[in-house]
Amino acid sequence: MKHIGNGRIIHAKSKELKEWRDQIGWTAKAARVEKLEGAISLTLVFTLPKPKSVKRDEPSVKPDLDKLIRSCLDALTGIAYDDDGQVVEIFTRKMYGSEAGLAIEVGQFQGQDLEQWLRVRRSR
User: Fold this and answer.
1) Do 44 and 107 form a contact (C-beta atoms < 8 A)?
2) Residue 59 is part of a domain; what is its CATH number?
3) What is the chain written as a DSSP string?
4) Rounded to whole angstroms, what are the CA distances from 124 to 23, 35, 67, 69, 83?
5) Which structural domain, as residue segments, surrounds residue 57?
């Protein structure tokens, strides 16, 4: 984050972030993603290229998963849903892959009580 005066703060890499969000939006439009109403369930899988010098199995480093999620929610607003407040469930993962990428699944939330939700979650 970067303070730019008058109480305004912007993301330090706002140009890159905007381009990435735009790319997500364009890809969703090209895939003819249907805009859903009501409660939404979202699955996001982020793949990052693994540097050759890295020994760890999981990308437990930046970019932070919560920031990646927020960017996707913003990018899909107006395309997959009217407002990201409609998203009531998110399954997400950040992992190493052969190249950088993002897999997105958007669906209507299937109402479940906590016990049902935990059963589904454990079976994934």
Assistant:
1) no
2) 3.30.1330.70
3) -EEEETTEEE-TTHHHHHHHHHHHHHHHHHTTPPPP-S-EEEEEEEEEEPPTT---SS--SSSPHHHHHHHHHHHHBTTTBS-GGGEEEEEEEEEEESS-EEEEEEEE-----HHHHHHHHHH-
4) 28, 26, 23, 19, 27
5) 10-123
The closest of 61, 72, 117, 119 to 94, measured between CA atoms, is: 61
Q: Is residue 30 part of a domain?
A: yes
Pair of tokens at residue 9: 């703060």
The number of domains in the chain is 1
Confidence of residue 121 (pLDDT cuts 50, 70, 90): confident
- CB within 8 Å of 121: residues ≥ 6 apart: 91
Answer whether residue 3 is part of any domain.
Answer: no
| Residue 80 binned pLDDT confidence (cut-offs 50, 70, 90) | very high
